[in-house]
Design brief:
This protein is globular. A hairpin with a 3-residue loop joins strand 13 and strand 14. The protein has a 5-stranded parallel β-sheet with strand order 3-2-1-4-5, with helices on both faces. It has a 5-stranded antiparallel β-sheet with strand order 12-15-18-22-19. Strands 6-9-7-8 form a 4-stranded antiparallel β-sheet, with helices on both faces. It is built from 14 helices and 22 strands. Bound molecules: adenosine monophosphate and glycine. Glycine (GLY) binds next to loops.
């Protein structure tokens, strides 16, 4: 089989790496890919935005299956366009990807189908939104409706920030609605599942670290590190989350004529009042994928095909007992502006270790060496029998690596390692 992975981040490198291990796969392509995907796939210089070009490429090369990493092409209907040409593609249609693309849609869906989430109101003009803010006060969460590349959410602890956030949403010109949401406190978890429209098979639980700095301080990022399993949450908790959130959501999407096929990602917050959904994503998480896929025991191709062919109820998915922990190495200044084009050293030294995988995100090979090309540059995943050991391996690995201004969190996994099973 020939497979195309669409995207260019650490998630896509992990997908290419796992797909390449399948005995069914003859060749993996990645469009556009990065400096790391070229080691396991052939990079194709077509951006994820050029959907018609991707269709042509897949037809020309007779590619059997396309796997979409990022949200943007999904929201633009890449799956619909591929299906219209009779091409096999893994991911939700435009109608289903709206669960990530519109916060207002996701909130209304949860309210209608009684899926636990924070209280909220949706407004389509600043005046009414500001009046509501005055009534409800802070702390409060302001969410722009529509894709915002992780930048659409402001958790405001004072009125000035809350007002500025609402004004920002409506002055940007790209958003027509704002969601104003009850502030929740608790631990965040990522629970993803494979879904074929009807059948839902959860992946193991993972925990992301969204803030830029140690101790969950600083601005929100795409994710600075992750680990799986999350041993301080029991299997009973996961089962409950699957029954209360993932299964009813897949069912709700069916009932709304928006059958969801692909990876459904629930961002959960564990509050004193129980679990609540913070957000849905319509794709694999990044960097969660860099710890989940190394734990997948079987062939990823079988699972993706079962989703696409609506046969997920006919397969079994097994996970290994290993713990995986990944630390993101970022460019200086990320998530704000950052420099690019700086040489990365030390990658060869890590290639020989079986218990370390370096997944590239913002990197490029310039024909001579690997250079930085994005905010999140690399994700270094350690694999071991325990989370502590996986954490040690990841941080030991990082000591070999360097690029100008490289920064990373030094506390990835500490929440689990410092706790007992609840
Ligand atoms: P989202 O893009 O909706 O996942 O939001 C980004 C981040 O903002 C989340 O990972 C949380 O850390 C934070 N956040 C979102 N909604 C809430 C909420 N209702 N209460 C507290 N924090 C939130
Ligand atoms: N790691 C969070 C996300 O993929 O949205």
């Amino acid at each position: 089989m020939k497979i195309l992975v669409v995207g260019s981040g650490g998630r896509e490198h992990a997908l290419c790496w796992k797909l390449k291990q399948s005995p069914q796969v003859e060749k993996v392509y990645c469009a556009p890919g990065n400096g790391g995907t070229r080691l396991v796939a052939e990079n194709v210089p077509i951006s994820e935005k050029q959907i018609s070009e991707l269709v042509k490429f897949v037809q020309q090369e007779q590619i059997d299956l396309t796997v979409v990493g990022p949200e943007e092409p999904l929201a633009h209907g890449i799956v619909d366009q591929f299906r219209a040409q009779g091409l096999k593609i893994f991911g939700p249609t435009k109608a289903a990807a709206i669960i990530e693309g519109s916060k207002a849609f996701a909130k209304d869906l949860m309210a209608k189908y009684k899926i636990p989430t924070a209280d909220y109101r949706v407004f389509s003009n600043a005046k009414e939104a500001l009046a509501y803010l005055n009534e409800i006060g802070v702390p409060i969460v302001i969410k722009a409706d529509g894709l915002a590349a992780g930048k659409g959410v402001v958790v405001a602890f004072n009125m000035d920030d809350a007002v500025a956030a609402v004004n920002q949403v409506f002055s940007s010109g790209t958003h027509q609605k704002v969601v104003i949401e009850e502030y929740l406190e608790g631990e965040e978890l990522s629970l993803m599942a494979f879904v074929d429209g009807e059948t839902v098979i959860p992946m193991p639980l993972a925990q992301d670290h969204k803030q830029a700095f140690d101790g969950d301080l600083g601005p929100n990022t795409g994710g600075m590190g992750a680990y799986s399993p999350v041993p301080h949450f029991s299997q009973a908790f996961i089962d409950q989350a699957v029954e209360q959130v993932l299964k009813p959501t897949a069912k709700a999407m069916l009932a709304e004529n928006r059958a969801f096929t692909g990876v459904l990602y629930a961002g959960l917050m564990i509050t004193e009042k129980g679990l609540k959904v913070i957000e849905f994503n319509a794709r694999f998480g990044d960097p969660e994928t860099q710890v989940i896929l190394p734990r997948l025991a079987g062939d990823l191709v079988d699972i993706l095909l079962a989703c696409v062919n609506h046969q997920l109820d006919q397969i079994e998915i097994n996970w290994n007992e290993q713990a995986a922990l990944t630390v993101v190495l970022a460019s200086p200044g990320y998530p704000g502006p950052y420099p690019t084009g700086n040489e990365i050293t030390g990658l060869e030294a890590l290639a020989k270790f079986d218990d370390l995988e370096v997944f590239h995100a913002g990197t490029v090979y310039d024909g001579n060496c690997i250079k930085t090309a994005g905010g999140r540059v690399l994700a270094v995943t350690g694999l071991a029998d325990s989370l502590e050991q996986a954490q040690n391996r990841a941080y030991q690995g990082i000591h070999h690596l360097n690029f100008y201004g490289m920064h990373y969190r030094s506390d990835i996994g500490n929440k689990a390692i410092n706790q007992r099973i609840s």
